[in-house]
Task: inverse folding
């Protein structure tokens, strides 16, 4: 691990801390984070392989070639591991949602960028935990947290769909049902995708985005929702009934 | 139960069997089937409410106001109930697949009819079992049966997509990935739909079919796969790599 440290400048007197056998605080912090990530990733791989209930902390420790107390140094329980796996997968989608806000692109293209990351996350080692968490396996507070993160992503996707209908890049549709259909198609990847298949997660995500894009693009000669001050005649029952809380 | 029996014709001598206190064999058979269906439906409702592992045969018996031995008269185990719930949901889709074969309609319309039944099945009381079965909860032979039924439906959907590309009613696409996206969007309904929501299962299925149809329809001015003897230039990697076994 010490090779991460830069060598002291050659030829001069070096100050004492540079030759200290203890590593700098920020290095220890970074090292701890790397090891914690490795524990979470090992847990995800074991959950995928054996299922959550059939996996023990011993299995996870064995995969990492460490002892169970070492695993306990990074997480308090198997439940927390499931939760952290969920968060690791979902964070990729949340990060994409934040990044596209800065882009000056039609909303359909921003939505595609989010859905591409969503697809890659579900096809990653965290996909299984992302779509199976929220079950009875989590504590009440973890379960609430999972629900709120899922709802945040759902609202971001609906917002992008509404913006796309408004800017004319998406044909008029029901944002709630469309968001459910998109997320469902992507979530289901975790049920059929195995890493040893011939397509990579990125290729699958790309194939799905192409399919979605074909459905979302407006059609020549058909009305769009882009005209200013136009009456939202195609606004759907479901959309008016469940107003998004975040807007 | 005897009120299901037609009354003997008034005013004439009735033959002995009509007044027999034993019901006719076909009536007993029908009665048994009705009761078995009621047991399976009660199991589905209890699994939805409490989860498979938290549901006992006592819960199912209590819902029907019968004893546990009565339930055992119709099924041999809780596992079999889960399996039968799966079959009950999936049968609706298989039946739709069979029925559309007789219809002289463009393949996209036949596909829509199948997807509508698929959506209604997943939004029905059997939806949860349809998408969660195949797990470790089933015996090896039941699990194989579940897999083969799922594969049969998948192949039927792919075939309709290919036919649609050929007859020009569906724009050129990758049948395998498109079938996965459609089935995923529909399967996921079981994760978010609750019967007490404001939309019925039929309304949700209709909304999803409208979303899918917008994506599947060919676009004016874009090439279709309908031209005879045309080189399948847009035929995808995935489709050539996994040739459908059934064709």
Result:
């Amino acid at each position: 691990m010490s090779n991460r440290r830069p060598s002291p400048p050659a030829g001069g007197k070096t100050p004492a801390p540079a030759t200290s056998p203890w590593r700098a605080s920020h290095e220890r912090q970074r090292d701890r984070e790397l090891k914690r990530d490795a524990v979470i990733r090992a847990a995800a791989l074991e959950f995928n392989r054996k299922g959550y209930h059939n996996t023990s902390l011993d299995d996870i420790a064995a995969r990492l070639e460490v002892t169970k107390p070492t695993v306990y140094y990074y997480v308090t329980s198997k439940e927390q591991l499931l939760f952290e796996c969920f968060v690791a997968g979902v964070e990729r989608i949340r990060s994409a949602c934040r990044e596209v806000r800065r882009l000056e692109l039609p909303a359909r293209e921003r939505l595609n960028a989010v859905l591409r990351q969503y697809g890659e996350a579900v096809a990653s080692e965290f996909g299984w935990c992302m779509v199976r968490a929220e079950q009875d396996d989590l504590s009440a507070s973890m379960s609430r947290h999972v629900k709120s993160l899922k709802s945040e992503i759902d609202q971001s996707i609906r917002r992008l769909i509404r913006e796309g209908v408004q800017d004319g890049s998406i044909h008029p549709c029901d944002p709630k049902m469309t968001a459910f259909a998109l997320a469902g198609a992507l979530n289901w990847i975790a049920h059929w995708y195995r890493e040893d298949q011939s397509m990579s997660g990125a290729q699958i995500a790309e194939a799905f985005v192409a399919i979605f894009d074909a459905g979302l693009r407006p059609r020549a000669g058909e009305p769009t929702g882009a005209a200013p001050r136009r009456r939202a005649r195609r606004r759907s029952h479901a959309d008016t009934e469940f107003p998004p809380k975040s807007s």
Observations:
- The interface with chain B takes residues 51, 54, 136, 171, 173-174, 177-178, 180-189, 191-192, 198-199, 204, 207-208, 211-212, 214-216, 219-221, 236-238, 241 of chain A (CB under 8 Å).
